[in-house]
Amino acid sequence: MRLDLPSKADLQVFAWYCLAAAVYIAIGVVVLDFLLSFWVAVGYLLVVAWLVPAALRRLR
Amino acid sequence: MSWAAHDLEPYAIQRHLKLKIAFVPLLFGSYSPDMLTKWFVYGIHLGPWELKASDPAQFHRGWPGFGFTHSLLFGAVLGVLIWKGFGSKLWGLSFMIGQWAHALTDACDTLGTPLLFPWTFHFHIDAWAYAGQTGRLTDAAAYFSGLGGMWDVVWIVYGLISWRVLTSAYFDSVIYRADAFWPWVNRWVPRGALLALYRAAFFYGTSRWIAWTIWAHVIHHYPYDLSWGGPHWVPAEHP
Asked: Which alpha helices (DSSP H) does B17-146 contain, by range?
């Protein structure tokens, strides 16, 4: 049996999403309203998983 | 009712059905039964007024009420309307599958769903307590203390085992190609943003599962009760 393991690039993306999730969870536990809307999560994820990385790439 | 399963199931469904599936209508279908009713089940405050169903369970799952939104017929009818309205059989079918997944999942709680509406009999497996009538916070505490929360874990773990469905390569080769929606949106929205949108429901479902679990068991110490039909410390609704 061959294990289907993620590449280093996949793991880097996963780590970034985990960091984003940790912040989202920390905010959500304090401000429960933050957890209630799917669209808030979509907006948040667009910022942290697309806008911020895109801005960082542009700065480099 | 389920809190995170409806966010997570579409990833597994589109991965394992040997059908071509459009992800957005699949997700939309998965959310559709509660989309217009959940706020009124829990109630909202508008200034001095509270808007809330007098009988939340009846309103949510019953007839008279909006229980028909949790029936197989509702998914089929809306699926046909979407097919004819948008001219896309793929969208109609995907919506219907998502809605059916929701209706079947909610049949696992103590209140169940009128799956075969207009026959109003409630199909219910009674695995976890339906506590929507107690309000949002008690419902959350109960759900994440019983088998409902564990059912969500199944989908989270399943998604992580099937991690390739969340990769950019899978998005490009399967999701993007399956549905003209993505290339159409891609005319205005960059591909990186589309990828984040595709992953959003999994992110949302998993993150809020963790957050509500921390809230219920670390901050508030609600007791776990993983027995069938539990938690029994909350008054569960039955048909």
From this structure: 23-35, 38-42, 56-61, 72-86, 89-106, 136-143
pLDDT at B12: 84
Structure tokens at B170: 């899978």
Average pLDDT score, chain A: 92
**Could you tell me the residue range of the domain that residue A34 belongs to?**
10-59
Q: Do B214 and A29 touch (CB under 8 A)?
A: yes
Cβ atoms of residues B61 and B67 within 8 Å? yes
- Is residue A44, in this structure, part of any structural domain at all? yes
- Residue in A6, A29, A45 closest to B203 by CB: A45
Res A3 pLDDT > 70: no
- Any alpha helices (H) in chain A, and if so which ranges? 8-30, 33-36, 38-46, 52-59
Instruction: Kindly give the pairing relationship between strand B49-51 and strand B44-46.
Output: antiparallel
**Residues B40, B177: contact at Cβ < 8 Å?**
no
Contact call for B192 and A13, based on CB within 8 A:
no
Q: Is residue A55 part of a domain?
A: yes
- Polymer length of chain B: 239
B44's enclosing H/E stretch is strand B44-46
Give chain A's domain count: 1
CA atoms of B99 and B101, how far apart (whole Å): 5
- Express each pLDDT in B84-123 by its tens digit: 999 999 999 999 999 999 999 999 999 999 999 999 999 9
